[in-house]
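User: For a benchmark we're assembling, each entry needs the component sequences followed by a predicted structure for the full assembly. Here are entry 17's components. Please fill in the structure.
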Amino acid sequence: MRRRIDPRAEQNFFRGLLWLFTGVTVLILFFIIFYILKNGLPVVSVEFLTKNPQEMGKAGGIFPTIVGTVALTLLAVLIASPLGIGSAIYLTEYTRENWVTRVIRFGSECLAGIPSIIFGLFGFILFVTKLGLGWSLLSGGLTLGFMVLPTIIRTSEEAIRSVPYSYREVSLSLGGTKWQTVTRVVLPSALPGIATGIVLSVGRSIGETAAVIFTAGSSLHIPTSLFSSSRTMSVHFYILAREGISMSNAYGTAAVLVIAILVINIVAYGLMQRFMRKYC
Amino acid sequence: MKGRARMTRLERNERLIRLALLLIAFSAVSILLVITVFIFGEGTPIMFRHGLTKFLFNGDWYPLDKSYGLLPMIIGSLVVTGGALVIGVPFGLACAIALTEFSSKRLRHVLKPVIELLAGIPSVVYGFMGVVILVPFIRDHLGGPGLSVLAASIILGIMILPTIISISIDSLEAVPQSYREGSIALGATRWQTTRMVMLPAAKSGIIASIILGMGRAVGETMAVIMIAGNAASIPRSPLDPVRTLTSNIALEMGYAAGEHREALFATGVILFVIIMVLNTIANLTSRRRTR
Amino acid sequence: MIASKNFLCKRLHVLILSLVVSFGVHGGCARGTGQRGVVVAGSTSMQPFADHWAEVYMKEHPGRVINVQGGGSSAGIQAAREGAADIGMSSRELKPEEKDLLEVMVAWDGLAVIVHPSNPVEELSVEHVQEIFVGTITHWATVGGFNRPITVVTREEGSGTRGAFQEMVMKTSRISRRAIVQDSNGTVREIVAHDPESIGYISLGLVDSRVKAVRIDGVDPSFENIERKKYRLIRPFLFLTNGRPSGAALEFINFVLSRPTQEMIRHDGLIPVFKE
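Assistant: Structure for entry 17:
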C-alpha cells in the first residue's frame, strides 16, 4: 500500500516554502533600494543638485547630468510620441485586424525586445558616425526615441481601445468626421492611459545607460544645443562607481536616480488607476 | 453641385489623414527594418567570409590578430542566462504563486505594483550592488576574483524577477475562478489545486514570462560588464570570469574598425537572432493562452 | 470645452516643436567653433587630464567650448579619422597603418604595474611581468609572494594603455585570455585595490594610496626615474588630427603645448614635453 502524504501537511510545507521564497525576493528587492537611499540621501542636497561637478566628479554636484537627462528624455518622448500615438490611432480607429496590423504589431513587439546595446551599436554607427551627428543629444534622443516607441504604441493602443464605443457613436451620429471624433472625443478620453505610457517611457529612458553612453557621449558640460554631448545621471553614476572616483557622489547620484524613477512610476501607476476607474 | 464638391473634399481629407496615419504606423516597422537591415548588412558578410562554423565555434577572440572566435562569448551568454533562470524562476514563480493562490487580493494589489516598480531600477544600479556587496563576498568566501559567472547569474536572476513575477501573476489571475472553485469543491487542498489545476492552466503564460525573462537576461549589458570579469575564455567553474555577447560588443565598439567592426556587428546579428527567436516563442505561447 | 483643450494641446505641441527646431538649427549652424565646440575624444588615460586642460582653457577663454570624450585610444584614432572628433587622443604610439594622421605629443606618461597594498611583492622583472600576464606564472609564490593564485587584470584590446603595455612588456606574447578585462584605468585600479591576489597596469599618474606600484627591474616608478630615463615603461600622450589642425582645435593644441599648461601637466602627475 503506497504511503500517502497528508495533503494538509503537504500544503503547509509548500505554503511555508513559497512564503519563504517570496519573503526573500521582496527582501532583496527592497534591500537594494534601501541601501542606495541610506548611503546616497545624506549626499543629496540643494548644492549637490545645482552645482557643477569638479575634478571629473570627485567633488561638486551633478547639475549638468540632470540637465542632460531631462533634455535627452524630453527629446526621446517628443520623437516617439507622435509616431507612437499616430500608430496606435491607425491600428485602432482606421483599420480592421488584418495582416497589415499584425505586421505592424509584430514589428513593434520585436523592437521592444531588442537589447539596448544593439540600439547603442546602431545609434553609434548610424547617427554618430555615418550621419555625422557626433556624440550629441540628437543622436541619443533619436536612439532612445526608437527604444521607447514600442511602449508608447502598446499603451496608447490599449488606452484608445478602452474608450467605450458609445463615445464614438455619439460623436459620429452628431455629424462629426472620423478625425474629429478621434481628436476631440477619443484621444482626450484616452489621455490618462496614453500619459501612462509616456511616463513609463520616461522612466525607462532615465535609467538607460548602454544606448546613451555610445550616442550622447559623456561630456560633463551643460548641453547648449542639440549637437552638444551630454552625460546623463545613469552614465555619470556608472563612471563614478566603476572608476572609484567618488563613492559618496556615486551613491548620491544613484539616490537621485532611484527617487526620480520611483516617483515617475508612482505617477504612472496613479494615472493608470485613474484611467481604469473611469472605464472599468 | 456645390454640396457634392464639399463632401468630396471632406472625404479626401479623411483619406489623406488615413494615409498619413498608415505611414506613421509603418514607422515602427520601418525602424525595425532599418535596424535589422543595417545590422545584418554589416554583420553577415564577415560570417560568410570566415565561415559560419569557424565564427561560432572558434575559441580565440583576438580581434587585433584577426582571430574572431565567438565561442567563449556564446557559452558565456548561455551560462550566465541559464544561471539567471536557475535563480529567477524558482523565486519568481514561488512569489507569483504565493501572491495569487495563497494571499488576499488586497495584498496582491499592493505588492504587485511595488514589484513592478522595482523593474524600473536601472541595470547599472543592480550592477553596482553586485560590485559592492556580492563580488567581495564571493571573493572572500568562495574564492576566485569574485567577478564571475556566479555573480552575474545572481544579479541577472534578481533583475528578471519582476518580469517573471508580474507576468506569472497575470497568467494565474487570468485562469477562470471556476477552475479553482471546482477543484476545491472536489475536496482538493489549495496547494493541490495550485499544483494540479492552476499551474497547468496558466502554463503558457508562465512559460512566456520565463522566456521574456530569458530575453532580458541575454540582452543585459551594463550590469554584466561590471560584475562578470569579461575574460574572453570559456569558464571552467562558476567562480571563473566570463564574457557575454553583449559585453563583447560594448567593450570594443568604440574603436573597432574595418573587419573588427564587422565582427562586432556579426555578434549583434547572433544576439538579434537569439532574441527574435525567444520573443517569437514567447508571443506564440502567450497567444495560445488567450484562445 | 473639449475642443478648446484640444486647441491648446495643439498650440503647445507646435510651440515645443518650434523650440526644438530652432534649438537644433541654432546648434547646427554653430558647429565646430560654437556650441558643439572642439571635440577631443579617445584615450581614457588621457581623458581626466584633457578634461582638466579643457576646464582651464575654457575659464581663460570664455565662449570657447572643448568637449572631452573617452572611448579608448583606438576609438580616438578612429574618431579623428572619421571626423567624429576634431582631436583624437592616443596613449600609445601609432601603428604604421595609422600614420596617416598628424600626431602632436603633449606629454609623457609612465606605465605602472600595480598590486594590492597588502601584497608582499615589491618588485618584479619585466620577464616576470610578461610571464604573469601570459599565464605561465600562476602563483604569487613563484615570484616571492604569498601562496595564492594570481588574478590578472588587463585593459580592453583597443586601449592605448594596453597597446603600450603590449609593446613594452609583452612584446610578441599575447595576454592570457583568462585575464579579467576592464575598459578604463580607474576600474582596473578599483579592482586591484580590492583584490589582494590581483595584478594590473595603469597610468602612473593614476596611482594613489589604494594600490601599490611595484619596482620594475629594480627601478622605482617615480617621475624622477622617468626623467632620468631609468624607468623604462613610458608612453606618449598624443593629440591626433586628420590633416593640419586649424581654428579652435589649433588654438587648444597650442594652449596645451604652452609653458604654463606644461607646468600644470607636471603638477598633474605627467611628464611635460618641454623641459625647463
